[in-house]
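Dear colleagues,

As part of the handover before I leave the project, I'm documenting each prediction I ran so the next person doesn't have to rerun anything. This entry is a single chain, and its sequence is reproduced below.
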Amino acid sequence: MRRFAAIALSAGTLMAGMAVVGTPAEAAAKWAPYNSYGNVSAWGTYSRSGGTTYVKGYLRDGGKNGWTACVRFLFTEGNKRYWSRHKIIGTTSSGAKYHYDGKATVSISTRSSYSSHLWVQECGRNKKTGKYYYGKGRKLF
C-alpha cells in the first residue's frame, strides 16, 4: 500500500514577534499559480492575520510522466525572504520515502510572519536528474 504526503522544505526560517498590532484579519482569498506544466495543478486560499500569512490548498499530479509535482511560495518582509516548497512524497510499506510520480492529490499548508508580499510558483522535479524546474511566479499580494 502506498501513502502520499506533502512535504514542506523550507529554505529559511520563520521569524517570530513581527506581528502588526491592530491589523484586522483579512478574509481568505483564493490562490493558483500560472499553469506552467500540464500535469501539475495547485490551488487554495490564503489569509492574513496578526502579521502572519496562512496558506492552505491542494497539490495535484495528473499522471506518471517522469516528474514529481511541486509548488512553492515566497513570503517577503522588506529584504527578507522565506521559501516554502511542497511536493508529493510516497511511502513504501517499509516506511521508505520517495518522490512520487503518478496520479495523486495532497493537501498542503504553510505560514510565515513575513507578510509584505506573497508569490506562488508551480514546479516539477525531474526523477532522473533530481533537478527542480520552476514556472512563472504569480504575485498574490
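Confidence is low (pLDDT under 50) at residues 8-24. Residues 23 and 80 are 21 Å apart (CA to CA).

All the best with the project,
I.
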